[in-house]
Amino acid sequence: MLPLTEDLTKNWLREHGLPVPRGRAAASPEEAARVAEDMPHGAVVKALIPAGRRGKAGAVHLVANPPECRDAAARLLGASVNGHMVQRVYVEERIAIRDEHYLSLSLRGAHPEILITRSGGIDIEDVIRTRPDQLVRAAVDPLRGLAAGDATELMGRAGFDTTLCPSLGVLAVALYEAFQAADALLLEINPLAVADSGLLSLVGAMMGIDQHALFRHPAWAVAAGALAPSSNPRELSVAVANRELPGGECQYVELAGDIGLLVGGGGAGLYQHDVMLELGGRPANHCVTPPTGTDNRKLKAVLAAILDNPKLKGLLVGFNFAQMARTDIRVRTLMQLLQEKKIDTARLPIVIRLFGAGEEISRKMVAGHPNVHYVPRGTTLKEAVRLIVELTGSVRDKAAS
Amino acid sequence: MSILIDETTRVIVQGITGGQARFDTEWCIKYGTRIVAGVTPGKDGETVHGVPVYSTMLRAVGEHRADASVLYVPAPQVKTAVLEAIAAGMRLILVTSEYVPLHDVVHIVAAARNAGVRLVGCNTNGIISPGKSKLGGVGGIDPAEMYLPGRIGVCSRSGGMTAEIGLALKEDGYGISTSVAMGGDLVTGMSMAEYLALFEADPDTDATVIFGEPGTRNEQEVAERARMGSLRKPVVALIAGAFQEAYPAGVSFGHAAAAINTEDESASAKQRLLQAAGVHVAGSIEEIPRILRQVLGQPPYRLNGQQEKSSA
Predict the structure, then answer these.
(1) Domains of chain A and CATH, by start
(2) Which of B170, B225, B164 is nearest to B199 (CA)?
(3) Torsion angle defined by CA atoms of residues B111, B261, B250 and A104, in that order, rounded to the nearest 10 degrees
(4) Which of B20, B106, B243 sits opposite A142 (nearest CB)?
(5) What is the pLDDT of residues A290-300, one digit of tens each?
(6) pTM of the predicted model, to two decimals?
(7) Is there a catalytic annotation at residue B255?
(8) Which residue is catalytic, options B103, B107, B255, B280?
(9) Looking at the complex, does the CB of residue B40 fall below 8 Å from at least one CB of chain A?
(10) B91 and B25, same domain (yes or no)
(11) Which one of A213, A248, A324 has the shortest CB-CB distance to B140?
């Protein structure tokens, strides 16, 4: 899920006719002050980062006038909040709130789900834990969508005043439409406020969208490309490759062990990781590599990250018996990188289990390289894992002695 | 028999003029699959490996009776193409495409259910009823290397692992009635429990092997059915991904669906649930045929429907 920043979420909701407080993003204290000039009842200044819990992190300030707004923005800009560097703030008019409620829409399974409670303004996890009886949860039929009558009914069940239910029902329907049109996986309104004026207002709004639907939302593609904070340069480089290169997904997670895993990321990757732990080996990473066609750049990015890990003492290239992919693309990429990085395989045992199309060429490519074990056909995934665990163990012992 | 497909199944390939579709179509035909037509908008009149291509599903079914379609269309077009296949009367639809937006997936899954259509995938690498027919890339150019005809049903969340399971079974002399890669996404058309119900009803399947992963409730549903007694044939389960529990929560290990949402979606919780429900849980691929030998007796007890079941 790609979380959108508050400005993008609220602009989207506003475009869908929903009642969102007036607000705008600002990149400098002066710009923030100018936005607040138009807000006679004061403003709220928030760090504009794609993450929640900003209030707890001290990244939300209430200000009475433009000079205060300038100061608050100056304090936030450039600061680090929940691991994100604050480059912009969101300045929003202050709403006098009478009641705070909660409504969310999520898609995590075969049916979208709506969750409503009158107890808003606090973490929903707390409500789930302490007041589960106040929660109303319902599945939405993806073909029919959310009907106004059904939504109004749900509001009644959540305990809302009968005079408020119809307008909340209409609001929920509009939210569902905005949720679906955005390809959102989560849209959380907290608080869903009833202002002193009696009008509904979406004061808190957080939306996370489906990264596979970005082709329908090109304007979000750049904004949503903000990478999760990672202090590991190898994880970061793979994340950048994943974002910027074409083809399927790639991923690299570094772990504390010393055996590199070059796997597909599907079932066989999970299985080999299980088996390695069971046999006492310690994986240096987990990874996801896309099926590789002519463009091997993502594979190369992942493999480079694995080989650059200073803890690396062994490498397993372990894939399912190839039904569709070619083996030689993977092996050629490996051999190229070993050469580029001047890695002496005498000191880095490598076990390759790659069967299928192109295997003959693949075996020729590794022939003559010391310590590169291209296991014979018929070797099981488990046997290949055992071999690399043993070989790495002896390298480790040699280093220790 | 077998489930879902056999030598009589008549198939349309949607998106047949694409690279992967051409490749798979060629090898499916060589394997014996009856591919009667292909569809690619704007490519009316072309042929692919002798298969006539039409612009729409309706034109294709107008010329050729068909029961099933397999989709190779790009993710953005999957929703439209599936709805078109449903409207054209397909009873079985396979979606090989990856990264289909989830809102589209839940829509087509619900639409297929409403129409009583069996939807396999998205992101399936195919179904094979060895010796009869295959749909999708499963088995590559030489399916016989991995999939022997026989009496074991296979249902896997991972396409690649169907090959490993097929190899391990073959090594021990066991063949397969049908092997299904159900797709590893968060939401799929048919669920694992639904495939097991089909194997349960298939007179030529004696036992089923399932391969599961963390995330989703597929394996829990299987455990539930087993516990209720609605699975009388032996089920052997291999559930991978328990390693995730050895690392701090919140570390992501790829595969959207393999993200654990709740405690009981972890691999080891699934293993426990299945075990408690009477499913045979295997610790490795090698163990699968050993368990089958214990519960079924010596293979091969019927190959190609020719040999009789051994008395063991």
Answers:
(1) 1-20+96-228 (3.30.470.20), 22-94 (3.30.1490.20), 233-400 (3.40.50.261)
(2) B225
(3) 70
(4) B106
(5) 877 778 999 99
(6) 0.93
(7) yes
(8) B255
(9) no
(10) yes
(11) A324
